[in-house]
Amino acid sequence: MCKALDDIYNDGVKKGTEENESINDALIVALANAGRVQEIVRCTSDKEYKKKLLSEFNLN
């Protein structure tokens, strides 16, 4: 039973990681297309700013 729960948990973690990567990729593309390249760097270190950008581009 523990193995089954571990597998379910690990699958969830993997799915969440993949979804997060997709959202991050979409944000980078949106910022680059908008000519806002400097903001790509900023959102990697400023989590609140990244949340604002995700909301602005409807990626949250």
Automatic annotation (TrEMBL):
UniProt protein name: Uncharacterized protein
High-level lineage: Bacteria, Bacillati, Bacillota, Clostridia, Lachnospirales
